[in-house]
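Minutes, project check-in

Agenda point 3 was the complex the collaborators sent over. CS summarized: two entities, 1612 residues total, and the question is how they sit relative to each other. Sequences were read into the notes so everyone works from the same version.
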Amino acid sequence: MIQRPSLADLNSYWLATNYLSAAQIYLRENPLLQEPLRPDHIKPRLLGHWGTCPGINLIAAHLNRLIVNHDQPTLLITGPGHGAPAVLSNLFLEGSLGERYREYKLDGEGAKNLVRDFSWPGGFPSHLTPATPGTIHEGGELGYALATAFGAAMDNPDLLVACIVGDGEAETGPTATAWHLTKYLNPKRDGAVLPIVHLNQYKIASRTIFGAMSDDELRDLFHGYGYEPILIEAHDSENSADERIPVANHREVANAFDQAIDRIQKLQRRWRNGEGEPRPRWPVILLRSPKGWTVTKELDGERIEGTHRSHQVPVEDPRNDPQHLDALDRWLRSYQPETLFEEDGSPKPSIIRWLPKGARRLGMIPEANGGSIRKPMTIPDWKQYELDIDRNHRGRETASDMKTTGEFLRDVIDNNRGRFRLFCPDELNSNRLGATLDASQRQFVWPTPADDPNIGMQGSVFEMLSEHTCQACMQGYLLTGRHAIFPCYEAFVSIVDSMMGQYAKFLKRSDEIEWRDQVSSFNYLLSSEGWRQDHNGYSHQMPGFLNMLLNKKAQNVRVYLPPDANCLLSTIDHCMRSTGKINLVIASKQPMPQWLSAEEAEEHCRNGLSIWDWASSPTDETVDVVLACAGVYPTAEAVVASRLLRQTIPDLRIRLVNITDLLILEQQSFHPHGLNNEQFDHFFPPGTPVIFNFHGYPSAIKQLLWNRPGHERFRINGYIEEGTTTTPFSLLAANGIDRYTLVDQVLCAGAIERPELRERCVQTRTHFQDVREEMLRHAQHNGEDVPSFTQWEIEPLANAVQGDPI
Amino acid sequence: MIQRPSLADLNSYWLATNYLSAAQIYLRENPLLQEPLRPDHIKPRLLGHWGTCPGINLIAAHLNRLIVNHDQPTLLITGPGHGAPAVLSNLFLEGSLGERYREYKLDGEGAKNLVRDFSWPGGFPSHLTPATPGTIHEGGELGYALATAFGAAMDNPDLLVACIVGDGEAETGPTATAWHLTKYLNPKRDGAVLPIVHLNQYKIASRTIFGAMSDDELRDLFHGYGYEPILIEAHDSENSADERIPVANHREVANAFDQAIDRIQKLQRRWRNGEGEPRPRWPVILLRSPKGWTVTKELDGERIEGTHRSHQVPVEDPRNDPQHLDALDRWLRSYQPETLFEEDGSPKPSIIRWLPKGARRLGMIPEANGGSIRKPMTIPDWKQYELDIDRNHRGRETASDMKTTGEFLRDVIDNNRGRFRLFCPDELNSNRLGATLDASQRQFVWPTPADDPNIGMQGSVFEMLSEHTCQACMQGYLLTGRHAIFPCYEAFVSIVDSMMGQYAKFLKRSDEIEWRDQVSSFNYLLSSEGWRQDHNGYSHQMPGFLNMLLNKKAQNVRVYLPPDANCLLSTIDHCMRSTGKINLVIASKQPMPQWLSAEEAEEHCRNGLSIWDWASSPTDETVDVVLACAGVYPTAEAVVASRLLRQTIPDLRIRLVNITDLLILEQQSFHPHGLNNEQFDHFFPPGTPVIFNFHGYPSAIKQLLWNRPGHERFRINGYIEEGTTTTPFSLLAANGIDRYTLVDQVLCAGAIERPELRERCVQTRTHFQDVREEMLRHAQHNGEDVPSFTQWEIEPLANAVQGDPI
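CS then shared the predicted structure for the full assembly.
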């Protein structure tokens, strides 16, 4: 039996949420003003943001009305996450807060606790967090609410995702381009997004851009983006009986919301009946309302309501300034709390009786706790895609690791339609995952050329040249219980450094919330790495994302550098099954030598690192020098270097250790994958020099190895910001991770470790230094790489070198 | 005497630039096809991007026409920086390339070298770089061209900045919001930006969003942004006499450009005469043209021209495939090189005679080599703003470091109008630089409320809630020879991690170019740090930008953590005078204790670190434990800890070292500011334990200290991703950088260093552990901070503690 709310119901509810929002910011005692307000009722530290609260409360009231009237499952994403008091007030009154947390149950005690605990140490913070029911987006760092909403709506045909976008947030780049996302939304198969632009003209202190735009400009802009804009100005009602009590023009606001849902339903109906028009125009509500609406109009001779002065704590010092105390008292009493709450402090039944029930409540929509509805993927056996390895000639055959994984992912798509997507900012083809397009088109609903078979109305592939949009969409998709991978150029993933950092915070906090279930991991698959940016050069060389990840909570981050195709298959398989993590996988798209069989790769990946016997000196005894390597290019160079060394000075005992799970380097006490000291010493015997050839900035290895004793014995090579358009070999050489530099470093260490080989080492160094110079001259002269670089025919090359007199 | 080009001139010039662009990608020999084309004429590695070249060439031809016809100083910013072959062709023909580089002088030899060296090791790379004359933007990482253009135009009233925006780049967030920048451009005092959206429908392999939009959608969108859009479709002319020779519809294209310049001139004239209309509508040219235009129409049965297949190297294998060789031959000869170039290979005079001359050439506009026209700022003596320090009670007085610096910057603005700006994404007031608004309004030309005095048509302050836009504008402003500071919330500067990384690359490459003069440094002034985000909490705590900076080239980066107001003044003064760097300054906005007089601060900042005798044990002898600190909060905690320790166990010899220039920690061989080992040992005596209390992630210190011997003796505290809305003290404690944790760590080390004090140390540890617990309980219970935390009345607190029995 549906209880449709009247306009009066909406206003009472709005007053109650406004009251609770303001009370949370100010009161530690006397939460319902049943006593005269005294300074000691005020919190000692006044924290929070009032300015956005009344608008959020208005939107929430009208959204609840839609939910009730249409029985519409609705997820709310609140861009202005600093409006937490508003959201919490709504969650309290609908009872979901109390359902998640006993201390906030829907009664007088709960109301008192809610008011008192807000912004208090241990209580709800001043922003939305994973602790807030119904939340999949904090809204702390602005810009991503809208794209997160679209990600949540994808493949969720019955869901409505309402998204509040503040006019401050609307100024950000990520939001400005996210408006295009309706061009990717299929009204038949996907859900709907209802954006509500919350225009209240001011940021912290300054005018907003959108606040300064005319109605015509706003209409044109959103028309241009492809929407049907619905402009509505919310204001005090002229029909108010008592002008001291705030009454909003609910009829007009309700009409705007009705118009929006009507348009959405018609659009979906037509598309689902096969009558959908091209370029579907979804509604967007542009809601103007006064900033800090219903607060004191003026204080200390300055306007408060409708200005930036209402942004945070509008009445600044009620504890010490009697005028402020009086202003606060009048403001709070203007909502007439005695009409909203019972004597015992619980809300009057009339205020809340019409609200949505059960899973229709904003705080209880299952999609906002995605882990609770997540189903594991159907993943084919990755070993079916194994590349054959000739164990007698490892490295002789080359293949593109990414291409191999593309075939695996093609079948993953096929087995998981409607719950698995690839979000890719710079095109799957360019990252050599083109095979996936055999299983799925790129979904794009705007008209496209007829001769392009890989683009269409429906598909598991999302491509847009916006790392921000891809990241936020994928967050929305994962947090609502689905699965995804983010293939990306390595250099440009740093564009989302800060987004990843915020997402890591979301995961960390989620882990602390008992009722929140783990969602699928966020899987970054980086390719088109800096070491082979032949067409692009220096700007496309930036491996620092990895460093950012290492600063996050150990429980939530993993970094994998699979050295070949079979290891990449095993790694991706693992990542797709994992939950609650940010997995960073860095892989190569160029044809590169292949080392391990599927069986070996599985073992190698399970351990995270291995001694590669076949690339080490044949000895069980003391090792003279360890060649450690992580990453496709550093590994290949290390294998060649080891071979050159073993062929020229067989007496020098070299061990090659490949690391595929970078965090095994961290100490066990810092990271769950970290080796204990005994294990570490097994691979890197104490006192033995280690030449570490690394894919990224050396700083990453320095911070990981910091707590290991005897760090002077580690020499770390990596990317040192040298680059331009040049040959692959010259680029490796410029950064000192090439085979000859490694040979030189090993010989240098070897000469000290093994005095009897000193002379031999010195001679050999000179020889290989000459070879290196010759190779660089060759590249310079012929505009091509060293012979056989990409084919990695190690033996002929090594033989040639060995054949030279040294 | 102006030589206005005819339409035929434009087409011949276009053919010549197209020819040279294609030749650069393909030919190592026979650059003008004077012999039959053979496989060995083809470069061994074919690198580069053809797709965007013909469009860039068309735009450049028509821009040159405007420059000549209007004698208009014009700076070109090319968003599709991967179209370097096109830009280089134009620079070669106008002679600027030859003026900068002898080997590319405007003759046959120069043409041959240009064609041969492109993408060759040591030659011009496939993207624009600082080596390219006329370039202030690489266009490698997409998204920032447009805002860079606006920054270049600010305070440059005579300049036209033309900006090509690819339809790929247009999908990025930063570009999508940068369109709003006309709302910040004052037609009276600033220059003009002419954006040209280069719509050719495809990215690497996929359709572009803008390519799929209808004409109406495009017009509405740009109307909404506030522009007057001029749509033009470039195509093969129907009037072509010989259909094998490409001829473009130049008349229509020229009309579009005329319309644009006409509108710009009228708009500027009216505003400069005081008749400017509100909401000035600037033109934007929306230019549709076929991708890869004029290339082979079809090859191997697939369409090439007008599709994504022309993006990079459209004819893939002319070295080995005779059909491809033939296609390439026909394509190149379609431009009829014999009509464009003399026998000796130099361009025919008729092709180039009409081009702009001297400083009007795109490659020679002085603003593109900003260092050459940069004038140092007029900076008042910073000591005028000194905060008085009572040397007998250091730390007793508190002040906001940022506020003090705001007064300094107010006068800096006053002395440098029109050549100094603040670019601030999250409002100067919020970062406590409000004093600057006494000297300058926030510039914003769209209508604003009459009652806001701090916003207006003209000012030195730029505020927009978009870190991307602020960063790109500031780059454009600096690179054209001016000065600026970027005040920003610390947590959100990570939004521009990757932009900073790209800018660091630009500076590094610039240093290698002889003719490029150094521009003013990019000064980040970070505040609203994570340690005091009372209103916001966990999402506002992210100090990782510093880590990213440390991975850049040492010559270009500096990191300063001034501990108080006088140090901040000295640091900012230094940064505003410096050139060629990225200076990162992290400062506090909350009232915090003040330590050093101006004179002491000057000395401290000059040295980069000092032993603070007044906060250390009175001893010249051996030190038991060094307390090192960097950053305002870690320093304050360290000073209090030292005092607590000295009062409770006077026999323990403690040295407090404050570090204000973080890079002195790096080794001298790695960074010019690095201490040599002798200097380092002076501050941190070998074998002495060091407790390092750091502002950011501990990883930054780990990587800096990596190469110092005996790293086991360093214990590093910092931000470890613990946070929520809580009291300041609880936040410090949660991350283990609070005074009591420091006391504990020092006592722990002291007990080992000084066995005779062992028992005393152990007792004292227990006592302070209890105090710490008590303080945390206090915060939890009372919702307020430990007593006197913000006032830092050290003595009463310390006495109270000392008075307790232990």
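Noted in discussion: Chain B has three domains: 7-367, 383-593, 608-803.
Follow-up: revisit at the next meeting once the mutant set is ready.
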